Structure formats: C-alpha cells, structure tokens
Amino acid sequence: MEDYEDFFRQRLTDLRLQKGVSEYQMSMALGKSKGYIQQISSGRALPQMKMFFEICDYLEVTPLEFFTPENRKPSLVRDLARKAQSLEPEKISALITLVELFG
Fold first, then answer.
1. 49-95 per-position pLDDT tens digit
2. What are the DSSP calls for the chain, one per residue?
C-alpha cells in the first residue's frame, strides 16, 4: 500500500511541476487551505475521490493518465493522438515509424 501512496505523491508533484504551479497556488485554486497539497505531497493526507477528480481536472489529465507514469506529458500525448485520428492509415504508420526513430 505504501508504494501506491509514494507513487501518488510523486506523480502529483511531477504533474504539478509540469503545470508550473506551487503547492500553495494549487491548493488555493482547488478551494482548499493553503497547505492542502503540501499535506498530500508530504504523506500526511490523501484526497477523497471527488477531490482526486478535481485535482485531475486542475492538472488537465484524466484519472487514467494520472496513473500512467510512462506518459510523462499527458496533454501533449493526448493532443498528438487527437490529431492522428484524422490521418489516413498510411500516414499513421509513417507517424509511428517517426516516433520509433525518436524513441
């Protein structure tokens, strides 16, 4: 259980830093006390499920993206996938090849 809590805290911190906001700013934006996110980040608290969904909305990630650590830039990956959906199959294959070259 502790591993999951550690993951949660680290992922929250990573996504918050990507957004470029402080713990204080995020707490205030969520309508919580100024130390709310710091309590979660330090392991003294975990959010209730409703608040977790609000955190995801604030961070602009889905709950699935939150729990997918390999996806380090969820909004960029989502944007790429959305744009790729309108491409013809051969162009999608070419895009996959290009991504593999960068990987």
1. 999 999 999 999 999 999 998 888 888 888 888 999 999 999 999 99
2. -HHHHHHHHHHHHHHHHHHT--HHHHHHHTTS-TTHHHHHHTTS----HHHHHHHHHHHT--HHHHT-TT-SSHHHHHHHHHHHTTS-HHHHHHHHHHHHHH-
